[in-house]
Amino acid sequence: MPPDSPSAGRRGYAVLAFTICFVLLFSGSLLRDYDDPLAQLRRTAGEGRWKQFFGSSRATCGISPSMLDEFGLHNFRLSQVHVGSGYRTQRFLEKAQKGKTLRVGLIGGSVSLGHGTDPVTGQRNKYGAVPVQEQWHQIVMRYLEEAFPTAEFHFRNGAKAATDSSFFEWCWTSLIGTDVDLVFIELAVNDDPNTSFSSSENLLRSLLQLDSQPAAVYVDTFSLYNTFAGKQQTLLSAQDIQSTLSPFYDVPQISARPALLPALIRDHSLKEPWFLGDERHGSTSLHRFLGSMVIGYLMEERCRVEELALAAGEGGDWPSRAALGTVPQVTMRERWNSTETHATKPPTCVTAGAGLVPANEPQDWKLVDWKYSKFYYEAAVPNSDEIVFDVDVREGAQGLVAISYLRSRQYNLGRARCMVGERGADIDGHWENSASLAQTTIVADKVPPGRHQVRCRTLAADGSSGRSAFRVMGVMSV
């Protein structure tokens, strides 16, 4: 039959139509598999065929279609302030895929304790106003347990209200331990963006230098008012410090602010569904959004595991993969070729209500608590007797000894003097900041390894104000 005959033409169209239908049906199944974040776990047969066809597992996972339908791809993109290489996160996910036992730690503030106004009773300043199972980190943990059913996850919530990086850089070891595999850091609304750069960086460095080489992820919510040290209210927060540290230390940063804050500025009515009785603590809805953004990031990192392993660019003058996961020898506050040395071992810390016990029997100091969530050793009189605490300095530490104390414009707080041997510091527990926060002051430096003692006593009442009390929260070394 001639090739240009009507019958040949019809046959050609039929073949073309059949081919198109086959491609559409086949590609549809691939797209369904791509959209399903758990497809790689459930699929055992034929896995080699998928990889052979695509060259990697990129087509078999990603952000789930239900999450994309609800939140929109643009919100996931906006939330990923910084992603980086993904090296540490991917290593954590690979361990989970192999069914390992993994420890997940959280360092955060009152947001991560579900703080806010109880929507039922109207009680303000309630921890757990957002129920535990609806807090952002528990949403993430449920995803990990579902996505990696053969792994065993242990979660450690080291969140502590009214604290910031100046406390956590010294005391995180007492809250989440030193054998963690993944650490979430939620301190964007706690840290003062004007003063916390150093403590934020020290905290991050000490986490990344652990023997377990954990992955770290900044997870940021936001506040509608940020007033620090009596300065004008601003939308700036410690997220803007983290945005500088993240690329330098190759740490991802996931935040609710880029998507939600501009939307709230356009529509003020969104404040009520997103915040829980104030302008600082997120509601259940905001927790769900933040947790979902973290899950979306983790889903995408699962897809990138093989891409990183197969990445080219190992020669010439450019950095190789071998450098991934290493911590720069210098901080961002130093010269690139600085010869300064920094602690390579984690800090030590013991806090009131969690193991800190005086080495003597003071008469003027008492252990007090605030709503069974914050504990202090308090002296309420001027010129008190001494309270003495033991402190250990590790080999490989910088030799700094410090105390953590409450600073507030409330509670009649005044001044105290703390000493290590013949060295010490006078510390003021009062400030005009509207927030009551744990602060840290170095008492002595160049302290040799071994056991030492910190001695504290209150000083004379502060002038006409009569402020004389002082609250010690913890004793630490680094």
TrEMBL record:
Regions annotated as coiled coil: none
Entry keyword Membrane: yes
Domain of life: Eukaryota
One Gene Ontology term of the molecular function aspect: hydrolase activity
SUPFAM superfamilies: SGNH hydrolase
Keyword Transmembrane helix attached: yes
Protein name: Capsular related protein, Esterase, SGNH hydrolase-type domain containing
Organism from which the protein derives: Rhodotorula toruloides (strain NP11) (Yeast)
